[in-house]
Write a structure and sequence with these properties.
Blueprint (H helix, E strand, L loop, with lengths): L1 H4 L9 H26 L3 H41 L8 E2 L5 E2 L182 H29 L3 E9 L10 E5 L10 H13 L4 E5 L7 H8 L11 E4 L4 H4 L1 H10 L3 E2 L3 E4 L4 E4 L14 H5 L8 E4 L6 H6 L4 E4 L10 H8 L5 E5 L2 E5 L17 E9 L3
Parallel strand pairs: 3-14, 4-5, 5-6, 6-7, 9-10, 10-11, 11-13
Antiparallel strand pairs: 1-2, 4-14, 8-9, 12-13
Helix pairs in contact: 2-3, 3-4, 5-6
């Protein structure tokens, strides 16, 4: 469940995953704590603190698991359908031609070349100073065979020039370009006559050049065009020949007109901006996982919420007519209110007991039968919660037999307590009412204390011509009831399964899960119970108080 509901619905470690993981770790711990605290008799305040969250998590985990299993059946279909949905604009960035492309840079036919200089036929020269014919080349390879070292250029004043470009008057500069008519350009890509100008270093005449010519005094001339004593001039933007004529010192050559800039190309349309690094589009698989997890969680929470509300509001009344062959006509319509599995404890307390009592009294029964599992705790902790049972009212009284949970909570103390509350315990005993015999046996769990059911003690030496009604907590006791000629057995214990599909497990362990059934000449009625054990939740097995109306079949 953690994988499908937490890991698969988050991109990675973060607050959401930490919260989900904490929930899936804390929930089972609380459930285990609630069970242990109840069985070990921990302080009642601790039991109540652990019971609510622990038992509710138990119910929620059950339906989360069922939901995840159901979601696995439809997950492949949703994944297949999601592949047919066209990608969103953020999934595929539009190319410059307008068609979406999986490559953010566009298709190979219209995206710019990875070579920033362009194709060999039209890219500018990699030499940023190479220009049209007549402009000096900055290619350090193009030099005369007998040129001096580039670091030995001498200014006219005899001092070494600080300009590594300036050369001596009697030999060309290492940086001076040879005319295209004299020798080919050393650039293997494009010659100086057919390469487009890419020189962005060219500046206006009043902007100093980085390669400022040296003045006659030996200092660099502020005029980048000045050429002293006939030395080759480095005209940055000019169009004249690469070597100026001899000029008197200090003379300033006229700056040639600046070459027109190449026509600006229209900028390619910018691709659609991809999502920012912190805002990522969820993948289709992530969307499907979140959709299914949301549906599963919503269904589980709604199911548990509705089932819990059904328990807390109190049981509903169910009426069942049971014909008995031995019942006299005077007893026709005799009403027995059957109450089982109230389970007063850390979750269901005094207020719930009062709702059960009010529901039972509203039916105006002739007799009340409380068939076990009244409490989940000691008399010390739950005595006040059980106090409303003293107000149960019926013409022939209220009777009680033990269930398996009484033996977990101190059966002898509770038998004494219910007697004080006005109920009549039937411990392997029988009482003769005006129209039929009413018997009761202990629960099979009593065998652990040497006080198990004793059918012979309860049913022997009775008049077989009279109808007999038996109170026994568990339906499995029906077989002994058949052997002793009982006409009707009233039981509980199963809760009707309480939480679907718990009814399947209950059916495997009990001959009847809920309702009226017949075994030979004996009928068995099993109540779903008024309360709930563990989670105060019921799904598919609503709580009830059943009013059994006996019907005479004699003429």
């Amino acid at each position: 469940m953690w994988r499908r509901l937490v890991r698969d619905t988050t991109r990675g470690p973060g607050p959401a995953r930490r919260v989900g993981t904490a929930l899936f770790v804390t929930g089972p711990v609380l459930t285990a704590g609630a069970l242990v605290a109840e069985r070990t008799g921990a302080p009642f305040w601790l039991q109540r603190s652990l019971a609510w969250p622990g038992f509710l998590w138990l119910a929620l985990a059950l339906y989360l698991l069922l939901g995840v299993l159901a979601a696995e059946a439809v997950r492949p279909l949703l994944n297949r359908l999601s592949r047919r949905v066209p990608p969103s604009p953020r999934d595929a960035v539009a190319s410059p031609s307008g068609r979406p492309s999986s490559d953010p840079a566009g298709s190979p036919s219209d995206r710019p070349s990875p070579d920033p200089a362009g194709s060999p036929s039209d890219r500018p020269s990699p030499d940023p100073v190479a220009s049209a014919p007549g402009r000096p080349s900055r290619d350090p390879v193009a030099s005369a065979p007998d040129r001096p070292s580039p670091d030995a250029a001498v200014s006219p004043s005899g001092r070494p020039s600080r300009d590594p470009v300036a050369s001596a008057p009697d030999h060309p500069s290492p940086d001076a370009a040879v005319s295209p008519s004299d020798r080919p350009s050393p650039d293997p890509v494009a010659s100086a006559s057919d390469r487009p100008i890419r020189d962005r270093v060219a500046s206006a005449p009043d902007r100093p050049s980085p390669d400022a010519a040296v003045s006659p005094s030996g200092r660099p001339s502020p005029d980048p065009v000045a050429s002293p004593l006939g030395r080759p001039s480095r005209v940055v933007g000019g169009q004249g020949p690469g070597v100026q004529g001899a000029e008197p010192p200090g003379a300033v050559t006229e700056a040639p007109a600046q070459a027109p800039a190449p026509p600006a190309q229209a900028p390619a349309p910018a691709p659609e901006r991809a999502p920012e690094p912190g805002v990522q589009e969820p993948t289709r698989r992530l969307v499907v996982s979140r959709l299914l997890a949301g549906a599963v969680t919503t269904a589980a929470v709604a199911t548990v919420g509705h089932g819990t509300y059904g328990v807390l509001r109190g049981p509903r009344v169910r009426r069942v007519t049971v014909p008995l062959a031995k019942l006299p006509r005077a007893a026709n319509g005799f009403r027995i209110a059957v109450v089982s599995d109230i389970h007063l404890g850390p979750v269901l307390g005094r207020g719930f007991a009062q709702r059960v009592v009010d529901t039972v009294n509203a039916t105006q029964p002739d007799l009340i039968a409380v068939v076990g599992d009244l409490v989940d705790g000691s008399v010390k902790n739950l005595g006040p919660a059980a106090a409303p049972l003293a107000r149960l009212s019926a013409r022939h009284g209220a009777y009680f037999v033990t269930g398996n949970h009484e033996y977990f909570s101190g059966a002898e103390q509770w038998i004494a307590e219910v007697r004080d509350l006005g109920l009549h315990p039937l411990q392997n005993a029988r009482t003769e009412l005006p129209y039929f015999d009413l018997a009761g046996v202990n629960d099979v769990q009593g065998e652990s204390e040497g006080k198990g059911p004793d059918f012979a003690k309860a049913l022997d030496d009775r008049d077989p011509a009279r109808a007999c009604v038996l109170l026994a907590h568990q339906p499995v006791q029906i077989h002994e009831a058949v052997r002793h000629g009982v006409d009707l057995q009233l039981s509980g214990h199963t809760h009707g399964g309480q939480l679907w599909p718990g009814s399947l497990l209950a059916a495997a362990a009990n001959p009847t899960v809920a309702g009226l059934d017949r075994y030979g000449d004996t009928q068995l009625y099993v109540s779903r119970g008024a309360g709930a054990w563990g989670p105060p939740t019921r799904v598919g097995a609503p709580s009830d108080v059943t009013v059994i109306e006996l019907a005479a079949t004699r003429a």
